[in-house]
Amino acid sequence: MKAVKRHPRLVIGLVLVAAFVILGLVMPPFAGHDPRDWNTFPKHIKPNPAHPLGTTGLGQDTFWLLSYSLRNSLILGVLVGFFATLIGVTLGVFAGLKGGWADRGLSLLMDTFIVVPSLPILILLASLLQGRATILIISVVLIVFNWPWPARQIRSVALAMREREFISTAWFSGESTLTVIRTEIFPYISSWAVGNFINTVLVAIAVESGLAVIGLSSLQESTLGTMIYWALQYQALLAGRWWWILPPVIAIVVLFVALFLVSSGYTQYATAKRGR
Amino acid sequence: MTDQLLSIDRVSRVFTIGSIIGGTHLQALEDVTLSMDGSRPTILSVVGESGCGKTTLARIVLKMLEPSRGIVRVDGKNVHDARRGLSDAQFRRTVQPIFQNPFDTFSGRKPVETYLYQTAYNVCGIKTKDEATQVIAAALESVGLDLRIVGGKYSYQFSGGELQRVSVARALIPRPRLIVADEPVSMIDASMKINIVNLFLQLKQDHGISFVYITHDLSTAYYVSDFIAIMYRGSVVEYGPLDLVLADPLHPYTELLLRSVPVFGEKWTGEIGMSDLETREYALAACKFAPRCPYRREICAQRRPPRVERAGGREALCFKPTDYREE
Amino acid sequence: MIRIQDVKASYFTPAGEVQAVDRVSMSILDNEVLGIAGESGCGKSTLIKVIYQFIEPPLRLVSGRVEATTRTETGETAVMDGAALRKAWWQYISYIPQGSMSVLNPVAKVGSQFLDAVGKSTAFKNREELYSRVTGYLRELDLPVDVLKAYPHQLSGGMRQRVIVALATFLHPKVILADEPTTALDVVVQRGIITMLAQLQRREQNTLVIVSHDMGVHYQLARRMAIMYAGKLVELAEVGAIVESPLHPYTNLLIGSLPRIGDHARRQGIGGAPPSLLNPPPGCRFAPRCPRAMAACQAADPPPLEYRPGHFVACHLYGEPRTGGA
Q1: With a cut of 0.90, is the ipTM above it?
Q2: Which CATH superfamily is domain A54-275 in?
Q3: In whole angstroms, what is the distance from residue A46 CA to residue A59 CA?
Q4: Residue B101: its chain A contacts at CB < 8 A?
Q5: C268 lies in a domain?
Q6: What are the extents of the domains in chain A?
Q7: pTM of the predicted model, to two decimals?
Q8: Contact across the interface for C187 and B198, Cβ inside 8 Å
Q9: Are A187 and A179 in contact (CB under 8 A)?
Q10: Any residues with CB less than 8 A from the CB of A68 and at least 6 apart, and which?
Q11: Is a pLDDT exceeding 90 seen at residue B67?
Q12: What value does the mean pLDDT of chain A take?
């Protein structure tokens, strides 16, 4: 209870995310059927005890479909977040510490990907693949466009750290560059890296959902975004079938809020811990 | 003929500020040549005001910066050529640093003894913790500290003087032949300054370690050195055995420094001129000290001063000892 | 004349009360140069801030007062303290803070900063008159008038410091407080600044209080010296008296640790370190490091006594003043 009082944001955020994780990762195997299959159930049934969120216009159980879509969205988010942060931090530290041509080359790469807008590229890619894009492909593209942001930040940190005397002391104590990164630089950036990871998860899910809603995401896989897409396609809004379109929308909103709470709550927590 | 311990051979260093297009060049070091004999331990002081290039020189000798021109050799081997000259490992066993700010020398996130242990394991190749502990305890004892008290403490738990001594202890562990100390007592209080310079003298005597002592404080340089080099705006303007240089300076800047040191117990004599507004147009082809020099003549503003040699291994970069003729 | 009466000032930090200045009393006379010496953490900078009434949180004046007595043109005496002293900044009392080289605004020309700073405190009819007064003053101080047209970064450190001294003395204040005015400057420039301050003081016949950790600087400039240690005043006397017969063991050891060009004799420093001001030890604060400490030293904190005329020392070795009148 003391933890809740001291770090309310972090705790509430974590609880919410945990709920989503359970809903998205723990529950799907219990569905008993593949939620994506059409015509498993009668269409457009309103919520009732057998189908807590009703059924969709394609004959799917909304609740289990939601759970399954959530799983895909989460996987996509975590994949992109993890690899983008990992690659970004690694290349950023390397560029900052090494300097010279390595730095110049990597910086050029970073700046290119930051300047080039990702949305048109994604649309182009999606159009070329004509709906055959898988979660994996979309994840890879998102990773490629998201690693430069942490890379640039970390590069500045590494550049500044290189001038610090204790890095020289570490060298004169015989430490290798890798060890120096691990023991001296990493503690400085670890909490930032965690924050960046969470933010990237958020961004990835947001971008994919945005693409999905305009029909450019994977049409075979189901994510929160594609759920909305199909709902819109089948005029769920016009026909007043709220149980199909509202759940994914609300899920996205609440998920974002939860991730944001975790992100800013973690920052508060890390600052407080450091202040002591 | 023993190799020279340290040989700085016509080292220059230029910094480019700004981009490749439209940036400016700063000549931080110009044609610096200094050497230290390897046959017995000596202390060489490099003295100059801030901006004279002494810290840049220290970093080049410590392999933290590359020279634009010239070679630095330790025991005859090129310091900056890891393949054909001195390898990183060999370098670390021979040359160690002491930095100006002890609180920046150690990270505040881990106990300072970690650095001591790392030096013992990595640079000395010690394999067991027991052996490392012995070596570290001995090093700390040489600087007047006890491992039992130092152990487990973080950098902010020490006073400046104590932490600087830990820094010296760490540098001692590999039994280096040369320690390069960059302003090691500038941030230490007066009463503890002398303890650290006394420590240098003692280490030279007991362990045969040579020092390059970089400072702006002429008094401590006098106290500790065998040889002294005076730097001004990137050049060594005077060099020689300590007593010869400070008893009878060749270069007007040395004279000016000597007369400006505030001594507790002796009033300043004579007058010194104050410099005017800094102008960037002191001709590069002329003596850089000329605008401030009370002895300047026409030739000083026209041509570069020659490197003049005098008895006793003394040198100066000046026209005055030559009666304003080129020798 | 400024009277510092039993001043106690502390910094109230999250870690506790740092007793930076602990019950210090002294008088600063008219037409004198007083040097305040001591090592880092001794409280000299804090004392100067208290004199100037530049007291901002977490610093707080816990007890005691600072009183300035002046003689007005009509011959009357006026006593100022606290807020009245603050109102008299620039005109009566001027402060050159530590690291003042960074005090100048880097994006404004020196001239405009000068005029702005001075113009606020005075009633000059117009900018032109002020400007001509300023240039006149610079010429008096042998400063090139061109400095006014320059940006701070275009001037050398020494030149910047001379400009700051000019700025602080332009309104001919009766008291100038300078906190480490020459730190980070090379010795040659330092000599120039100290000489400039000395000349100014001789001409104006005002009071200059200079704080420095460099004993040599004090010898060149000051008439009297106050030595502080761990927030306490340990010795106060004419500089000559301190050179010839320093009384306090700390003063002795401090002077003995100074290397001197021309003298190769080995010197000793003082072992140990100054005490933490969060929890200073009871009794004399120097006792743990003092080679002549006695039992009384741990028990009670010695108050400063006038052991010889004009020579104050706070040490149990000098309990009773010598006979011969104060």
Answers
A1: no
A2: MetI-like (1.10.3720.10)
A3: 12
A4: 165
A5: no
A6: 54-275
A7: 0.81
A8: no
A9: no
A10: A28, A31, A35, A36, A222
A11: yes
A12: 83
Single-letter amino acid, residue C177 = L
Residues of chain C with pLDDT under 70: 72-73, 75-76, 100-102, 121-125, 320-326
Q: Is B90 on the interface with A (CB under 8 A)?
A: no
Sign of the four-CA dihedral B121, B124, B125, B130:
negative
Domains and CATH numbers, chain B: 6-233 (3.40.50.300)
Spatial separation of the C-alpha atoms in residues B103 and A165, rounded to whole Å:
9
Total residue length of chain A: 276
Q: Is C150 an interface residue toward B (CB < 8 Å)? A: yes
Neighbours of A46 (CB within 10 A): 11
Q: What pLDDT shows up at residue B304?
A: 87
| Mutant choice from B66, B110, B122, B163 vs A, greatest count of A C-beta within 10 A | B122
> Is C290 inside a domain boundary?
no
Nearest C-alpha in B relative to C188: B260
Length of chain B: 327
Please write down the long-range contacts of A244-251, taking CB distance under 8 Å and 24 or more positions apart. A244/A54, A244/A56, A244/A57, A244/A62, A247/A53, A247/A62, A247/A63, A247/A66, A248/A66, A248/A69, A248/A224, A251/A20, A251/A66, A251/A70, A251/A224
Interface partners of chain C (CB pairs < 8 Å, 3 or more) are B
CATH number at residue C191: 3.40.50.300
Rounded to an integer, the average pLDDT of B274-299 is: 68
Contact A10, A269 (CB under 8 A): yes
Separation of alpha carbons A275 and C15, rounded Å? 12
pLDDT for B283 equals 46
C219 vs B264: CB contact, 8 Å cut-off?
yes
Neighbouring-strand partners of residue C207: C175
User: Can you read off the two tokens belonging to residue B97?
Assistant: 């640093």
Q: Are the beta carbons of B273 and B294 closer than 8 angstroms? A: yes
pLDDT at position B93 is 94
Could you say which of B64, B101, B123 has the minimum Cβ distance to residue A173? Answer: B123
B199 touches C: beta carbon within 8 Å = no
Separation of alpha carbons C317 and C326, rounded Å? 19
Whole-number pLDDT of residue A85: 92
For residue B160, the chain C residues in CB contact (below 8 A) are: 40
How far away is chain B from the Cα of C76, in angstroms, using its nearest Cα?
Answer: 39
Mean pLDDT rounded to a whole number for chain B? 88
Beta carbons of B222 and B43 less than 8 angstroms apart: no
Quote the domain boundaries for residue C140. 2-229
On the question of pLDDT at B277 being above 50, the answer is no
- Contact at CB, C213 and B189, closer than 8 angstroms: yes
User: Residue C127 is encoded by which pair of tokens?
Assistant: 């900018």
pLDDT bucket at B280, cuts 50 / 70 / 90: very low
Q: Quick one: tokens of C234?
A: 């340990």
Is B109 in Cβ contact with A174 (below 8 Å)?
no
Provide the angle, in degrees to the nearest 10, between the axes of the packed helices A224-233 and A62-98: 130
Number of domains in chain C: 1
Residues B230 and B202 sit within 8 Å (Cβ to Cβ): no
